[in-house]
Amino acid sequence: MRALVLITALALALSGCATAQRFDAANDVHALLVSIRDNDREAFEAHVDRAALERQIETRISQEATKRSGKDDWAAAVALLAPTIASLAGDALIQPKVFLKVAEYYGYKSASPIPAAAAIAGSLRTLETGQVCAAEKKDGPCILIFTRYDGTWRLSSFAGDLSMLRTRGG
Known about the structure:
With about 170 residues, this protein is α+β, with helices and mostly antiparallel strands. The protein contains six helices and four strands, in the order H-H-H-H-H-H-E-E-E-E.
């Protein structure tokens, strides 16, 4: 009986931590969404781990180029240049106007009010790594991953389709 009470108490404590973590992250995710909507570069930078995102996007671009390199000579040449291209692309893609397309994909139109942090918290999921993520569907794969650095939750990884990273006209 004591073991059952202890296990129940531990489960409640752990679920409470996960919930508190999601609510804490939701405030920063809300601020990120506002910065994207308002094209506020300074606020955007405060809620993005640019170095982590650049590395992750560069790696994905390079992997895609390498995967396609076996199909033709042009793709093989691109694969050789992929690290340089990816570095330039990573820097160009990490901007509020680019992530506006991702936000719109999730249903956040620039003319619509951004949901309150409490509503955002309900759509976040805590990961075993201590990060939180936003997925397209409740049990779907994570698209945006946030990591806590120096008291602020920052966008640290983008797992969506790379074609989503484009400007409004792109």
